[in-house]
């Protein structure tokens, strides 16, 4: 079947596999790997990334919402799936029916979950989130042992499978705060294990920054996110594991025209041709994830050359200036993110122009943009 929308994201599954295998080599075979596939695998396609991960021996998947987990189950994926935040009571039954492991961190939520599990006659795994410094969700380290004891001794339909925390500055050059977090977390886990009288099976803290910069955070499972898709979490993070980008964002020239000096281009007439020049239009706009902030300041690649975006980025189309002479033709490939000849536009470049992070760049490639998957 022909591609009915030429703007698409090409997903380099072989690169994502390379990144995962690099993590496996670094952390060793004795630790489990959970990869984050929330937010449609950071825009890369959760189902296909998860299928590949299952086939190459990844141990766990992580999602943000119950529907994300259900989507994976309905696609036939059997790997354990952890929902990273607590479920609301009305979400619990669906989560448990689809065999999702749930995060817990407060007594009322734990009680509600135990009751739902009892009604379903299931004993379900939970992971206790401890807040050691992220300040988002989680039980305090001081209260964690008692809460763990409550799960272990008074919630017969829950199994305390894991304990975890999150590292907000593991990607920064100054390691002091993260080291303090990890020391506190290890002490908390020791106290929990003493309180309940057994070892916790899965103890995890290492996000991408932890994997790259803090080997002491690896514990029994690591939990990488952005690095799976080929990007270091910040410019301060040591590049201890080589990474390859997980996607390219591509479209095609849909229209060409020669304009005379003084011609205005686009909404608001924000760009006026300084000379006679060729303008190319391509069918990608802010509704696709080609950000409106690229108006008169972004660039694209065609045939190995870089061309500036001119005029305002529209919802569905954008224009670029090819100059007074051109060999570009309708149908030529336009690279929004990726490589053409010796030129590359990276996700890092987009993040710099947009004053944001790589995570947001790939997550904002809209669902209407087809994902085309390379073999791995």
TrEMBL record:
The active site is at residues 38, 267. The modification N6-(pyridoxal phosphate)lysine is found at residue 38. Its cofactor is pyridoxal 5'-phosphate. It comes from the Bacteria. Pfam families: Ala_racemase_C (PF00842), Ala_racemase_N (PF01168). PROSITE patterns: ALANINE_RACEMASE (PS00395). Substrate binds at residues 136, 315. Gene3D superfamilies: Alanine racemase, Lyase, Ornithine Decarboxylase, Chain A, domain 1. CDD domains: PLPDE_III_AR (cd00430). One of its GO terms (biological process) is D-alanine biosynthetic process. Residues 246-374 form the Alanine racemase C-terminal domain. Pathway: Amino-acid biosynthesis; D-alanine biosynthesis; D-alanine from L-alanine: step 1/1. It catalyses: L-alanine = D-alanine. SMART domains: Ala_racemase_C. PANTHER family: ALANINE RACEMASE, ALANINE RACEMASE, CATABOLIC-RELATED. Belongs to the alanine racemase family. Catalyzes the interconversion of L-alanine and D-alanine. May also act on other amino acids. This is Alanine racemase. It comes from Candidatus Ozemobacter sibiricus.
């Amino acid at each position: 079947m022909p591609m009915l929308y030429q703007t698409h994201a090409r997903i380099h599954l072989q690169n994502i596999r390379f990144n995962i295998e690099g993590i496996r080599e670094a952390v060793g075979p004795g630790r489990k790997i959970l990869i984050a596939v929330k937010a449609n695998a950071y825009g890369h396609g959760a189902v296909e990334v998860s299928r590949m991960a299952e086939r190459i021996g990844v141990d766990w998947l992580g999602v943000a919402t119950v529907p994300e987990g259900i989507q994976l189950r309905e696609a036939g994926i059997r790997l354990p799936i952890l929902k990273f935040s607590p479920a609301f009571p009305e979400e619990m039954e669906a989560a448990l029916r689809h065999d999702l492991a749930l995060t817990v961190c407060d007594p009322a939520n734990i009680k509600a979950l135990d009751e739902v599990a009892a009604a379903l006659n299931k004993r379900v795994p939970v992971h206790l989130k401890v807040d050691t410094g992220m300040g988002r969700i989680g039980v305090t380290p001081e209260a964690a042992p008692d809460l763990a004891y409550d799960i272990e001794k008074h919630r017969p339909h829950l199994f305390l499978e894991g304990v975890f925390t999150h590292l907000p500055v593991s990607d920064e050059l100054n390691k002091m705060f993260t080291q303090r977090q990890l020391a506190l977390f290890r002490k908390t886990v020791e106290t929990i294990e003493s309180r309940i009288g057994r070892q916790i099976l899965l103890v995890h803290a290492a996000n991408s920054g932890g994997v790259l910069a803090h080997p002491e955070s690896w514990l029994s499972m690591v939990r990488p996110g952005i690095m799976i898709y080929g990007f270091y979490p910040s410019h301060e993070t040591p590049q201890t594991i080589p990474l390859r980008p997980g996607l390219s964002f591509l479209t095609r020239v849909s229209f060409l025209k020669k304009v005379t000096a003084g011609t205005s281009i686009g909404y608001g007439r924000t760009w006026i041709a300084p000379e006679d020049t060729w303008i190319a239009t391509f069918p990608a706009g802010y509704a696709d994830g080609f950000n409106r902030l690229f108006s008169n300041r972004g660039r694209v690649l065609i045939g190995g050359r870089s061309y500036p975006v001119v005029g305002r980025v529209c919802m569905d189309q954008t224009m670029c200036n090819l100059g007074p002479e051109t060999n570009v033709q309708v149908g030529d490939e336009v690279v929004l993110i990726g490589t053409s000849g010796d030129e590359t536009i990276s996700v890092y470049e987009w993040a710099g122009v947009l004053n944001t992070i790589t995570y947001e760049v790939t997550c904002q490639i809209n669902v209407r943009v087809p994902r085309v998957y390379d073999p791995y």
